[in-house]
Write the structure tokens for this entry.
Amino acid sequence: MGARPFLILLSALPLSGCSGWQSALDTHGPHADSLARLFWIFLAILSTVWIVTIVMLLLALRRRREPGDDPLMTHPGTERRMTIVVSSAVALTALIVMALTIVSYGAQRVLFASRDGPLTLLVTGQQFWWKVQYEDASPARTFTTANEIHIPVGEKVLIKLESSDVIHSFWVPSLNGKLDAIPGRQNQIEIQADRPGVYRGQCAEFCGWQHAHMGLLVVAETRQDFERWRDGQISAAHIPDDPEEQKGMEIFMTKPCIMCHQIRGTSAGGKVAPDLTHVGSRQYIAAGTLPTTRGNIAAWIVDPQGIKPGVHMPLVQLAPEEIQPLATYLESLK
Ligand code: CUA
């Protein structure tokens, strides 16, 4: 719908952790479609109104009075014409405002129509990352991950939004509008992707120092791929057989890491920081800040404050020779 030039412009902007562009005009689902349609309708009508107003203003400015004319003199004919023009303009304005209200109401109905997605996620905004819990009728099939949401293509997914600290805002522009995550209450938003792809999202409410680095990815894939991914996520963490990884695991389990992070299947049971059971399978670490590579994991552990100043990840004291095995172990958690 004429979005190309905007998209080309947006694609020129570097977005950290972005695997495509992050734009509400690059739509990939019915909710985002309805919002984009609303945007173009408003843009077209309001631009027309603006152009007509400016043209009328310029025409009025061009009119010259003859020298000697009394500026207060009016002609009955002119008066009548002006009354008609102004009344029509007022009526037209009221009509346009009413029409836009109705169109906007229609879009809201699409956005908040149904609330019965077969897949339900509890997403909790935290400074400065997203906790993602997949719910299921069977408790054995529930699991927790972070910052990366996988969904099956063409299916409605209900996201229950909560916050554990301050107000955040969940926003994946290609799939839906934004919705606040508010402490002490639950909001609900639905997303649906029409084609496979990776859609970047972003916290859209200023929530502290690292608000800008509170990204997330939505990976839309076929039902089959999604089930494969889900089965992998449900399973406990990989137990290393490689000596380097084993050493890394031992370091992790004997350091304060386990106070905050969970790795299912091990003694690490912390719940305040991202679940690391399958951290190596995620595309990014630190909420969309760094691609998941061994080097980046090591850099993050050694200097979290340098990468995300103000982040709650503390600096863990490690001997230089402990860093490499620890990063190797974490990367192996696919
Ligand atoms: Cu969370 Cu901004």
Q: What stands out?
A: The pocket of dinuclear copper ion is lined by residues 125, 128, 168, 203, 205-207, 211, 214 (CB under 6 Å). The chain has three domains: 30-58+77-111, 119-234, 243-331. The domain at 243-331 is CATH 2.60.40.420 (Immunoglobulin-like). Confidence is low (pLDDT under 50) at residues 1-19.
